[in-house]
Design goal:
By secondary structure, this protein is of the alpha+beta class. It has eleven helices and twelve strands. Helix 7 packs antiparallel against helix 10 and helix 10 runs antiparallel to helix 11.
């Protein structure tokens, strides 16, 4: 199994897709960083900024429209989805472009300064109304989760047979990468022990809530983008942010914010551990597949040393 490659496109291919949607006159087609699985470009049409994303994965963006409508309709600063389509082997989505630059490009001080606002957005995401839908795990194009319970999702997500997904034949990583079977299985067993604490909570989870999917003007948050969106315990988003901003006191800031709002978070410690193990296990496998050995070792150390 080789490390995953983002799709590579000629500018002429991108121009053709945009011409089909907008007619002539799109300018300033520029590749953007971020996105591990998509090739992303910004462009301008009639003075307005947009983005187009391309993926090798079939149906990669079908849920994006649903999530875009859900979040932007409830006041979350998330880009509106304008069009979905296919070009040859690639799926694409065209979205409005939000102002700002990656929060990850801000200094650590600037990031920490914006943390309370980020926690506010995280809280709003957790409060998004999902009562009209059902299911856990990956959100489908119809807005429902793919699994009957959080446990079913966790088991399926880590199962060996992942035919037709990004994780097809992932057990090959035990032979071809730094992924260690004994470590993976140890963390998986710990995760399953904490699943009962997480599984009675069903909220919206962005699933990739970190600096490279958050936009800022340097002093305030201007938008949230992308996401591996799912239904489950919203504390998953909190631990993602904490692992990406380890020196910023994310967990304490979150607890202070909720205490000030008079919110009690039941089983906070146990749910937090369940979320760390869930995302950490996903991280181990992903870093091994991408060949990111340092990230793998850091995550491995963190998980094995959790209480």
């Amino acid at each position: 199994m080789t490390s995953y490659e983002k799709p590579s496109l000629a500018i002429s291919e991108i121009e053709e897709v945009l011409r089909n949607h907008f007619g002539p006159g799109t300018t300033e087609i520029t590749p953007l960083g971020g996105g591990n699985l998509s090739s992303v470009f910004s462009f301008v049409h009639e003075g307005k900024g947009y983005c187009v994303k391309f993926s090798n994965l079939a149906g990669a963006y079908e849920t994006e429209r649903y999530v875009s409508d859900l979040l932007s309709g409830q006041g979350i600063p998330f880009p509106k989805c304008l069009a979905l389509g296919k070009t040859g082997r690639l799926a694409y989505v065209i979205m409005e472009r939000m102002d700002g630059r990656n929060l990850g490009d801000c200094t650590e001080e600037e990031q920490t300064y914006q943390l309370p606002e980020l926690i506010g957005i995280l809280t709003s995401l957790a409060d998004v109304g999902v009562g009209a839908t059902f299911g856990y795990g990956w959100i489908g194009p119809d807005g429902n989760g793919a699994y009957a319970s959080w446990k079913d999702f966790v088991v399926a997500f880590n199962a060996e047979d992942q035919t037709g997904t990004f994780w097809e034949n992932w057990h090959d990583l035990y032979r071809t990468s730094c992924l260690e079977r004994d470590v993976f299985e140890e963390i998986y067993n710990r995760l399953m022990a904490y699943v009962p604490y997480n599984e009675s909570y069903r909220g919206f989870i962005h699933g990739d809530f970190h600096q490279w999917n958050i936009l800022s003007d340097g002093t305030r948050i201007t938008g949230i983008i992308d996401g591996n969106c799912m239904y489950g315990d919203f504390l998953v988003d909190l631990v993602i942010l904490d692992r990406h901003m380890p020196r910023s006191g994310v967990i304490q800031t979150y607890q202070d914010y909720q205490a000030k709002a008079g919110k009690v978070i039941p089983n906070f410690k146990e749910r937090l551990l369940g979320a760390y193990y869930f995302k950490g296990l996903d991280g181990l496998r992903f870093y091994a597949k991408m060949g990111w050995r340092d990230a793998y070792q850091g995550t491995r150390h963190f998980l094995l040393n959790l209480i």
